[in-house]
Write a structure and sequence with these properties.
Helix content is about 75%, strand content about 0%. It is mainly alpha-helical. It has a single domain, classed as MetI-like fold, CATH 1.10.3720. Helix 8 runs antiparallel to helix 11. The protein starts with a helix and ends in a 6-residue tail after the last helix.
Length: about 180
């Protein structure tokens, strides 16, 4: 969607982009109760589906981030590929998608951190303590007045995957800066 909004001109492009940006301005607390009832109708309460599925569907922030990144790439890349006879899907998959690796890595890190550190979602959708995520488990341990050393060990274990994902994605950031695709 970001590629289409950034590269193509069509009649309702501005309106679609503004509506998409407007969804960023709606606090998640406003949609929390209707979303709960939707997941209840699907019979997905007390499961991980309400926590996993929204992360894979993307969101307005990801579209905005990718749109801005694609707009920052030189327009000459698209024009030269069109002159060479490449179709728009070919241009996207062969040229723009490889160049978007740094932005995709950043979006992946942001999405992972948001899903990993989510405490409110599991608190709403999960009732069984056996299904608790690590952040919610830490919150539960804190409320039970558990030994402080055990709580700190849990905090380190909870933080470790985020650091690992960042270190893996850091390579993509550096490669994206080194290969812009244009020659002077």
């Amino acid at each position: 969607m970001a590629f289409g909004l950034a590269m193509f001109t069509f009649r309702l492009r501005g309106l679609i982009y503004m509506i998409m940006l407007a969804t960023l301005m709606i606090p998640s607390q406003v949609t929390m109760i209707p979303t709960y009832f939707i997941w209840k109708e699907f019979g997905a309460l007390n499961s991980y589906y309400p926590l996993i599925v929204p992360s894979f569907l993307g969101g307005a922030f990801g579209i905005f981030l990718m749109h801005q990144f694609i707009k920052s790439l030189p327009k000459e890349l698209y024009e030269s590929a069109t002159i060479d006879g490449c179709s728009p899907p070919g241009i996207f998959f062969r040229i723009y998608l490889p160049l978007c690796r740094p932005a995709l890595a950043a979006l992946g890190v942001f999405t992972f951190m948001g899903a990993w550190n989510n405490t409110l979602g599991p608190l709403i959708y999960l009732q069984d303590k056996e299904l608790y995520t690590l952040p919610l488990g830490l919150l539960y341990l804190k409320s039970e007045n558990v030994n402080q050393a055990l709580l700190m060990a849990g905090a380190v274990i909870t933080t470790l995957p985020v650091v690992i994902v960042y270190l893996i994605a850091q390579k993509q950031f550096v490669q994206g800066i080194a290969s812009t695709g244009m020659k002077g």
